[in-house]
Design a protein that fits this description.
This protein is an all-beta fold. It contains no helices and eleven strands. A hairpin with a 6-residue loop joins strand 4 and strand 5. The protein is globular and about 40 Å long. The protein starts with a strand and ends with a strand.
Length: 126
């Protein structure tokens, strides 16, 4: 089992920045992929970014490319999502997720992730 705990959400003005953290526990994550998703009210959960825990290429949704950065922290089992130039349309609950196996074809699919955090609210005011 893997437990994921997000933090760092809050209220920010448009153009501002936030950094979300995801602390993982329960087992080693060397073979996992760590993703961030978000869900706005009345909308489906959508892919934001993903990173292999062991290192490698990162992938982003087109809507956040160039503004968000996913990274692994120096702290044990921590993944970050640095969000810059935030827009009101970025407002959502942001979820951290872990997957044992992904491909470029499947990495954006919610059903490909095995473990989920409880989410953290990000609100961007205009």
């Amino acid at each position: 089992q893997v437990q994921l705990l997000e933090s760092g959400g809050g209220l920010v003005q448009a153009g501002g920045s936030l950094r979300l953290s995801c602390a993982a526990s329960g087992r080693t994550l060397n073979n996992y992929y760590m993703g961030w998703f978000r869900q706005a009210p009345g909308k489906e959960r959508e892919f934001v970014a993903v990173i292999p825990w062991s290192g490698g290429n990162t992938y982003y949704a087109d809507s956040v490319k160039g503004r968000f950065t996913i990274s692994r922290g120096s702290a044990k089992n921590t993944v970050y999502l640095q969000m810059n130039s935030l827009k009101p349309e970025d407002t959502a609950v942001y979820y951290c997720a872990a997957s044992v196996s992904l491909s470029i074809r499947t990495m954006r699919r919610v059903d490909q992730y095995d473990y989920w955090g409880q989410g953290t609210q990000v609100t961007v005011s205009s």
